[in-house]
Amino acid sequence: MSETKPKKKPKAAAKGAGNETPAAEVERLSAEISHHDELYYRQDAPEISDAAYDALRRRLAELEKAHPELRRLDSPTVKVGAAPVAAFGKIRHDVPMLSLGNAFDDQNVVDFVERVRRFLKLGQDDELEVTSEPKIDGLSISIRYEKGALAQAATRGDGAEGENVTANIMTLREIPHTLKGKDIPDLIDIRGEIYLGHKDFEALNAAQAENGDKVFANPRNAAAGSLRQLDPSITAKRPLRFFAYAWGAASNLPADTQAGVVAAFKSWGLPVNPLMRISTTAESLLDFYRDIEGKRATLGYDIDGVVYKVNRLDYQNRLGFVSRSPRWAIAHKFAAEQATTVLEKIDIQVGRTGALTPVAKLKPVTVGGVVVSNATLHNEDEIARKDIREGDTVVIQRAGDVIPQVVEVVLAKRPAHSHAFKFPTVCPVCGSHAVRESVEETGRADVVRRCTGGLICSAQAKERLKHFVSRNAFDIEGLGTEKIEFFFDTDRIKSPADIFTLARRDAASEEPLTSLRGFKETSVRKLFAAIDARREVPLDRFLFALGIRHIGETTAKDLAKAYGTLEALRNAVDAAIDGGKESDAYRDIDNIEGIGETVIDALVDFFGEQHNQEQVAALLKEVTVKPYVRAQTKESPVTGKTVVFTGTLTKLTRNEAKAQAERLGAKVAGSVSKKTDYVVAGADAGSKLDNARALGVTVLDEDGWLALIGQA
Ligand code: IVH
Q1: How far is residue 696's CA from residue 680's CA, in Å, rounded to a whole number?
Q2: 642-708: CATH architecture
Q3: Shortest CA distance to 640 belongs to which of 604, 670, 676, 610?
Q4: 600 CA to centre of own chain
């Protein structure tokens, strides 16, 4: 937990109450922590501050250390925190719900407009219309209308799949059950933001407090908590509101501009934000931004910036997406909110890859309505550069959901005998040397100091396991942080494969889990079932779960998409390991969109190491990796074909051609090989064209290509 708002005193002090026995105290603390976990994770309604919560946990940990026999396996310290509410069904988004790139200053906005103009090859006199509108700080939702009737509604979830909240959405007064008017498509997913107005938020909190119920930290939390009620009659009592600003799948659209479609939304009876405007220059976008920033406090609802979108939909289509966000839109965020407090201590945490991360432990302070007691310090150099010391008074800031940061030290308030912070050179967990490797490209020391203990460092091994079971990886319910720690410390789970053999070993064990204090039969059964439920896993999750450096979710998806199966990927990586950096095999991986040398090197390092090969092999005895299933792109004449673009194109930019080909399901490669299906050659094509001819690959000119894909 990082940020909560203290509204009430904790139900009991953290210290044992006088004559309480240790066993009774463990019981009491467990119940309390459980209660607060429930409030924080499930109800979005923390009652106590981070510090108070941490004190409860610290005391329990203390007791457990002193009396290991009292450590309960079903205690809340062993339970996953953020388990999703299981009772809502899931809905897959036909068109994923993506996020927006961010602009933090004026220059970023100027760059955005220029980037778009360049991409579209607009001349100086060509006008580019861009809409601007407030960025609502609520939660996004996708509402499907079929023949004008509200059919289903889903939260954003992970962008690909959300929770089915249809019954709850049906209770919102502002959302029509039937659309009325002209040009209503047979099917359309309306996207927008659910939010709570300031007045309604305050009234809700006052009523909650009066009834002794939970009080929400901010309107966003309140809106989220209200929508995620399993009982829709509760949602119905909360005055949730809605602005429609985008769409997902649609059988057809009522206009050919962003503003036109949103105007149609309005005519159909959907609420839209009245402040949307159209501009044609970066300056006028910035004027809008400043105007809205000035009005921010009087709007009556929370906003955290403004959003700019290219108005013409044909331009939007040409611009397409990069990674997880559209190239045709950007969010311009408001500056972060700041506060001053005392930095009590600098903690060093050891992560999955051995990185030593400094964390500032702060005297709790409210920033923008949320109590903050931790802030990130990034790394050693940052601490030295800002000369941040324990005991200093510091200015901190937070922006949106971003982890709070230390901006600067208030030197005037520095205690007389303070001394510069000494960053440890040994791992605080395993005692191994902690070093800063030199970065190949620059020859300079890496900013991150890492523990060299590898798997002998229990912190690293545990963090890898936690990552492996986490929500976006194997997503094993009921196997959270604390349980991993316990199973690791008791030698039950040391590697990913051990998770899947746990039940078998437990059945044969002289000390089965159920014989341990506090570990009930039903919870053990549930855990084993949750593990079994993950014996089949999609390729991208599998890759992400392995925790290979530089392979985050997006890269894992890119790799899964490009190779389809684990076998194909392993073959490609093995070939690159054998062939080295200059080999075709290496370059073939390099040709994949989104994949560069850093990732290939990380794959080569990981799969080249025997220890990892053994761990993966052991894991594959227990789990089946499902091939990647492509999102339903329409079959096109180039689906599954490999295309190489070379030379200067005149009707499309290279990026555009590439994006378009990929949308149609083609794989775009950078070099020509036997596997290439088409080479599209523009003017002045060089060696690639020669190669194509030599290998007998079909060569097309730009018009030929456009004809092939039906765009001539
Ligand atoms: S457009 C393809 N317009 O901001 C992206 N988003 O950071 C379409 N948001 O997930 C989103 N106000 O929840 C758009 N006027 C607005 C918005 C808005 C708030 C949220 C939305 C999105 C997030 C992206």
Answers
A1: 14
A2: 3-Layer(aba) Sandwich (3.40)
A3: 676
A4: 23
Domain ranges, ordered by start, for the chain? 90-333, 538-626, 642-708
Q: How many whole angstroms separate alpha carbon 386 and alpha carbon 395?
A: 12
* CA atoms of 598 and 603, how far apart (whole Å): 9
Examine the residue annotation and report whether 658 is marked as an active-site residue of this protein: no
Q: What single DSSP character describes residue 375?
A: E
Supply the pLDDT for residue 402.
Answer: 57
Tokens, residue 703: 């018009």
Q: At what angle do helices 521-532 and 496-508 cross, to 10 degrees?
A: 140
Q: What CATH homologous superfamily does 538-626 map to?
A: 5' to 3' exonuclease, C-terminal subdomain (1.10.150.20)
Q: Which of 5, 79, 135, 667 is catalytic?
A: 135
Six token digits for residue 413: 């308030």
What is the average pLDDT across 163-170?
Answer: 94
Q: How many other β-carbons are positioned within 10 Å of the β-carbon of residue 101?
A: 16
Length of the chain in terms of residues written: 712
Cβ atoms of residues 394 and 343 within 8 Å:
yes
Q: Is 710 exposed, middle or buried (0-12, 13-18, 19+ CB in 10 A)?
A: exposed
Q: Which residue's CA lies nearest to atom 21 of ligand 1?
A: 140
Q: What are the start-end ranges of the H helices in 38-179?
A: 50-66, 106-119, 166-169
CB contact set of 440 (below 8 Å; sequence gap of 6+):
none
Per-residue model confidence (pLDDT) at position 211: 76
Question: Looking at 385-447, which runs of residues are DSSP E strands?
Answer: 393-398, 405-409, 434-435
Relative to beta strand 450-451, strand 434-435 is antiparallel
Residues with CB under 6 A from ligand 1: 98-100, 133, 135-136, 140, 193, 245-246, 307, 326, 329, 331
- φ, ψ of residue 561 to 5 degrees: the values are -65, -40
Per-residue pLDDT tens over the stretch 487-536: 999 999 999 999 999 999 999 999 999 999 878 899 999 999 999 999 99
Looking at per-residue confidence, does 297 or 310 come out higher?
310
Nearest to 625 by CA among 544, 554, 679, 551: 544
Query: Quick one: tokens of 295?
Result: 């009005």
Name, in order, each residue with C-beta under 8 angstroms of 638's C-beta and a sequence gap of 6 or more. Answer: 661, 664, 665, 666, 677, 678, 708, 709
278 contact partners, CB below 8 Å, separation of at least 6: 129, 130, 131, 132, 259, 311
Q: Which residue of 193, 261, 327 sits with most ligand 1 atoms within 8 Å of its CB, as the best mutation to test the pocket?
A: 193
* Alpha carbon distances (Å) from 450 to 183, 475, 607, 674: 60, 27, 21, 43
Q: Is the pLDDT of residue 13 over 50?
A: no
How far apart, in whole angstroms, are the C-alpha atoms of residue 690 and residue 188?
A: 48
Enumerate residues 6+ apart whose C-beta is below 8 A from 341: 362, 363, 364, 365, 372, 393, 394, 396
Is CATH 3.30.470.30 correct for 90-333? yes
